[in-house]
Every structure is written in C-alpha cells, then in structure tokens.
Amino acid sequence: MKKRALVSLIILSISYAVFSQALQPNDSIKKFVDFLNNNKFMSPKEYVLNSFKKKDIIVLSERLHPEFTQYEMIVNIIKDNQFKGNVYTEVGVYNVGKQINEFLAKEGLSEDEVKEEILSIFKNLDYTPLWPLYNYYYLIESIYKINQKRKSEDKVYLFPLDIIFDWNSMKYSEQYSMFDGMMEPQNGFRPVIERNAIMGEHFVVAYEKAKYHNPNKKKALVILNTYHGYMRIPKIISNPKEPTIYSTAEYIYKTYPNITKGILINGYSFSTISEFVAGGKWDAAFKIAGNKNIGFDMKNTPFGTTQFDMYNFGGDFDNKERFEYLFDGFVFYKPIENFEIAIGIPDLFNDSSFLEEFYRRTAIVENISLSEAKSSSEIKESIQAFNVLGEENIKDSEYFKQVVEDLNIAMDKWIIK
Questions:
Q1: Mean pLDDT, the chain, as a whole number?
Q2: Cα dihedral 160, 166, 172, 175 in deg (nearest 10)
Q3: Residue whose C-alpha is closest to residue 92's, from 61, 122, 49
Q4: Residue 294: strand pairing partners
Q5: How confident is the model at residue 227 (pLDDT cuts 50, 70, 90)?
Q6: 362, 370, 380 from 173: Cα distances, Å
C-alpha cells in the first residue's frame, strides 16, 4: 500500500509539474500573474460587503444580461445579514417597481403564490414584448425568500430604473416605432430619450425616498450593464467639454461623489465578434493563477493601469484612460468558459390572456397584423422556447460557444506552452 501511495504521489507531482510548465506567462502578462499570486484577496462577496463599510452606493457593472452565475454571487451578497440596503437595477421599467415591492413586502405565501406573483411582474417588466432572462426571476424570488427571515425594517426592496412604459398605452406600430427611434441617436445628435440620465434620475428619486421612509436604508447595490455601469466616462475627442451624461453610473457618481464606488465584474464585450479585455491578457493571467474568485481595488494594480479597451458606445476615447479611471474595483467570479446562460420564464405563456397580449405586442413591434403574428412559425418557436427554462454552459450554447473558442485563441498569445 505504501508503494502504491508513493507511486501515486510521484505521478501527481509529475502531472502538476507538467501542468505548471504548460501554463507559464510570457513577459507581457507576468506582472498580472505575479500580482495575483503574491497578494491575499477577499472573496467577491467579502470584497463587496467590505466596500459597503466605506461607501453607501456600490455600482456593479455586470456581464452580458443573460449570464446566470453572476446573480448567484449577487444573491449571496444580498442574503448576508451585513447587507441592510436595497437593490436597484437597469432591468425593469421604473413603474413596475411598485408591484415588485408590494410583493417583496408580503409574508407567508405558498410556492405557487410566489410563482404567480413573479409571473405577473414579468408580464409588465419591459418595453420590449417580453424580458425572457431567468436571472431576474431568480433575483426577485431570492429576495422574497431572504425577506421571510428578516424583520420588517430590514427587508430588502428592489427598484427597477429603466424608462417609464406601459404596454396598455401602446396601440399602433407607428407609435412604438417613434418611441423606439427616440432612444437612438438622431442624425448625429443625442437621443431624444436619454436612458442613462433618466435611469440616473430614477435612482436618485428611489434612493432618497427609501432613506426618507427608513433612515437606515442608506446602502444601495446598483446593477447596471455595459457602459451604463461605467463610473467616470472618458472625455470624447470631438467635444471634450460637452457636459452630457453618458452613463447612469456617472450620473449617480456625480450626484453622490463621496459615497459611490464602481466595481467591474469580469466578462467580455460582445458585438459581431468576441472582444476580451487587453486582448485576453486578463483572462490568461487569471487562468495561470488558478481562476480564483476574488475582488480587489483597481488603483495602482496592473489591472487598474491597463489601458481601457472595452465597449465605448461608439464614442472616440483619447486612448489614454485606464481601467482605474472608469472603475474603482474589480471582481473575478468564474472564468468565461464557466459562464451559464439561462433564458426562459417557466409557464409564463400558460396564461392564455398573456399569450394573446404577447401576440399583440409582437405585431406592434414587428409592424405586422395580429393574424400574421399568430401564424408566424418564428414567433411560435419563441413562445415555446421562452415558456421553459433553458440553461446551458456558454461553451455548449449554439449562440455563444464561439466565444470560448475565440477566448482560447486570445489567451494562447500570452501563455508559454
């Protein structure tokens, strides 16, 4: 037995050595790997909760909307008894907040009643015909469960921040088309409907009301996507003195400069191609260091001093800003290859009246007749797909699997094998 154990130990040591040799950084990323290997870090949850000790408002710049595991991390933060604040999200029109929080204040509902309440919320959640991403369902459901174990004054509430919209007032395709067009740039000018500024205003109103009704509700966890979560927007070359607010997080930061902190969650930009931070350097460094889930402040780190190269909403940055200018902190929670995509709201379309309403909404958005919408095989397939929960690893997703292939190619540039 001792001989077998010795042989196993030798094999394990050889395997480890080979693995280590296969994942050595080249000179371009050595400083990143050394930083990760030579310092002690808090877990993402500990880091965010610790950040709340110094700041009242924490803005999380999330990954792609449908990615699920980031919400497991977020829920773990919220359920900790150290978190005494409320949650604010880009997802959800502002006027559905009343319905959400009336639900979150209730107690003793059965599982079926909880499901019925959340499905009702989802029918009014967005200005698109449907928001089919499950992580928001999971977030609402989780907060309800958390509140069942909390005193009334400590319950967590959820405030969606997006523009006010009511599908009952939308009757014609031309009406929706005009509304949709006003959220896009107009012949080189800013959009008529400035979502970022509006969401910022909505945050201020909701945040101040929450503190007025409960002075202990000073803490705010704000979840925003892509550039909406950029804390400080670099000046645009074309007009560096332009005072326009370009992101919701910037609006919040400029309103509450001394109590706001912005934290980036690891991810990638996705348009027509996969774009990884610093050409994949960050992902390669974390891979070599063991892909540990950690959080840290950006300033004066190799990550913070990296030239900013994420999605910039079409503007021309001066290419001098670094990540530590836009974000105060960084959280790494699972490598990209372990991301999970979760789409679908189970049983939402079992309600025949909402099914009819979805056809009506889709007809308006697509500028087709109601009968054409009902006969469309594509729309029927969407209904079937969205009526169940579809969960898959990103590398197994037909739509996203190319991302992992592209990532491996990008990381190989920085790893000595």
A1: 90
A2: -60
A3: 122
A4: 332
A5: confident
A6: 10, 11, 20
What are the Cα distances from residue 199, in Å, to 71, 91, 126, 163, 248?
Answer: 21, 10, 14, 7, 6
Show the tokens assigned to 180. 């949709």
> Pick from 388, 395, 413, 381: which is nearest to 340 by CA?
395
Using the structure block, give the residue that is written with the tokens 């523009």: 163
- Least Cα distance to 64 among 271, 292, 315 occurs for 271
The number of helices, as runs of H, and strands, as runs of E, in the chain is 16, 13
Q: Which residues are registered as beta bridge partners of 393?
A: 340
**Angstrom distance (rounded) from CA 230 to CA 224:** 9
- Contact predicate 292/36, CB 8 Å: yes
Q: Give the start-to-end residue ranges of the domains of the chain.
A: 22-346+389-416
Question: How far apart, in whole angstroms, are the C-alpha atoms of residue 12 and residue 5?
Answer: 10
pLDDT in tens, 234-260: 766 555 566 667 799 999 999 999 999
| pLDDT value at residue 399 | 84
Return the residue matching tokens 């900013």: 308
Of residues 8 and 106, more confidently modeled? 106
The pLDDT confidence band at residue 84, using thresholds 50, 70 and 90, is: very high
- Residues 326-338: what's their mean pLDDT? 97
What is the DSSP code (8-state) at residue 357? H
DSSP 164-230: P--GGG---HHHHHHHHHTTS-BTTBPPSS-HHHHHHHHHHHHHHHHHHH-TT---EEEEEEGGGG-
CA-nearest of 89, 206, 95, 211 to 140 is 89
d(CA 317, CA 307): 11
Query: Angle, to 10 degrees, between the axis of helix 97-104 and the axis of helix 111-122?
Result: 170
